[in-house]
């Protein structure tokens, strides 16, 4: 169902209307490459009009579009709870949060567009099942505590992953991440606060929180991607300064930060092997079910089909809005031309 790579068409610059980036000829390619390497080595930023190797561009499009898709598909599990939020306050918070995730998708699609790939192409890849998005969104949200747990754990994991991306070598991705991380921090805290309230409530509420944590914990650890030994792209991504910290190191940082938060909350994390290792200065933990992870990544998780169908329907239902916006823009263009004549 999914492919392992995202191919950027050769005429992408022409299609997107971006000013063409200088293309390397065989004579100057080595010089351009040396310049690029020196910029990366000095921890400098690469900007859209700078020359960059094709593989760097493709890796960025692959990762940024995967990230953008995660943001907009990620709106769906929580969106299901907007009409069933337990109070007006929680409903307002949830609407604002889900809307923020849509905004994150927009910043990220825009960042990917600066690399010369069109938003239509990226969405087509998502809707046809060729593109990936975060595995975590292919599981159901069964009770209200799931919404709190998404904020606490899923947004918490997203922040852990995204803070180092604020220092990504590609300028537009790094700048988008600064804003995204500020908003994700509010998302994480609202989720944790909602759970704190439930944990002070009835036994039934405490049970709901524990149930949601039990179902989400392992899926959340898998958000950081395969272990370093199995990660296809990590080492090159780190050499290029796209990724700054490896999948396993980020996962460990997340576990170390989350265990004390679980203690304050009064929930048990469902891992019998989770214990402090004084020698390592980290928590030891059990193994993720990687077969289950790859099943989900490859389109066979519990909610993959439903999520994709909902997304495609939302896109199709919104066609009239896009058409109206284009018609309005055309009208304005013609009016401006008439006035200028
Ligand atoms: N799910 O070689 P690596 C949020 C794929 S939600 C699905 O390690 P890489 C907001 C990977 O794409 C989270 N696929 O790859 C929110 C690659 O496939 P490919 C959004 C996964 O790129 C919260 C293959 O496996 N954040 O923020 C997953 O070096 C609440 C090999 O993997 C991001 O998406 C996975 N978990 O590292 C919204 C972070 N893991 O391209 C609503 C941006 C791996 O070869 C509610 N992405 N794969 O076909 C990244 O940081 C990286 O791409 C990694 C993977 C860390 C995900």
Would you mind describing this structure in some detail?
With 341 residues, the chain is mainly α. The chain has helices at 12-16, 26-41, 54-73, 75-79, 88-113, 119-127, 144-162, 171-199, 203-222, 234-239, 247-265, 290-300, 304-317, 319-340; strands at residues 275-277, 282-284. Strands 1-2 form a two-stranded antiparallel sheet. A hairpin with a 4-residue loop joins strand 1 and strand 2. The relative contact order is 0.11. The site of Phenylacetyl coenzyme A has 31 residues, from helix 3, helix 7 and helix 10.
Percent of residues in helices: 55-70%
Bound ligands, each once: Phenylacetyl coenzyme A
Number of strands: 2
**End-to-end distance:** 53 Å
Low-confidence stretches: 1-19
Supply Rg.
22 Å
Strand content: under 5%
Widest sheet: strand ordering: 1-2
| Structure classification | mainly alpha
What is the overall number of helices?
14
Residue-averaged pLDDT, rounded? 93
Reconstruct the topology from this structure.
Elements: H1 12-16, H2 26-41, H3 54-73, H4 75-79, H5 88-113, H6 119-127, H7 144-162, H8 171-199, H9 203-222, H10 234-239, H11 247-265, E1 275-277, E2 282-284, H12 290-300, H13 304-317, H14 319-340
Helix pairs in contact: 3-5, 5-8, 7-8, 7-9, 7-11
The structure holds Phenylacetyl coenzyme A.
């Amino acid at each position: 169902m999914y492919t392992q790579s995202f191919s950027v068409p050769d005429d992408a610059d022409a299609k997107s209307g971006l000013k063409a980036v200088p293309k390397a000829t065989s004579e100057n390619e080595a010089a351009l490459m040396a310049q690029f390497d020196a910029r990366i080595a000095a921890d400098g930023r690469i900007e859209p009009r700078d020359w960059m190797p094709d593989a760097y561009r493709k890796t960025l499009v692959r990762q940024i579009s995967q990230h953008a898709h995660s943001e907009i598909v990620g709106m769906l599990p929580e969106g299901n709870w907007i009409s069933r939020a337990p109070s007006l306050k929680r409903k307002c918070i949830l609407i604002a949060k889900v809307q923020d995730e849509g905004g994150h998708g927009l910043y990220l699609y825009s960042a990917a567009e600066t690399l010369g790939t069109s938003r239509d192409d990226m969405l087509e890849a998502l809707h046809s099942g060729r593109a990936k998005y975060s595995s975590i969104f292919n599981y159901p949200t069964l009770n209200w505590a799931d919404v709190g747990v998404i904020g606490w754990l899923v947004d918490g994991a997203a922040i852990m992953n995204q803070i180092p991306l604020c220092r990504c070598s590609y300028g537009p991705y790094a700048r988008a991440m600064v804003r995204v991380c500020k908003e994700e921090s509010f998302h994480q805290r609202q989720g944790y606060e909602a759970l704190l309230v439930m944990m002070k409530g009835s036994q039934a509420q405490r049970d709901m929180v524990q149930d949601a944590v039990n179902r989400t914990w392992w899926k959340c650890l898998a958000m950081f991607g395969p272990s370093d030994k199995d990660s296809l792209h990590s080492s090159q991504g780190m050499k290029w300064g796209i990724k700054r910290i490896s999948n396993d190191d980020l996962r460990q940082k997340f576990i170390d930060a989350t265990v004390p938060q679980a203690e304050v909350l009064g929930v048990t994390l469902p891992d019998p092997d989770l214990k402090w290792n004084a020698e390592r200065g980290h928590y030891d933990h059990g193994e993720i079910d990687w077969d289950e992870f790859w099943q989900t990544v490859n389109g066979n998780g519990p909610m993959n089909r439903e999520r994709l169908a909902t997304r495609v329907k939302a896109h199709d239902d919104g066609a009239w809005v896009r058409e109206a916006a284009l018609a309005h823009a055309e009208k304005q263009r013609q009016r401006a031309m008439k006035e200028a004549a």
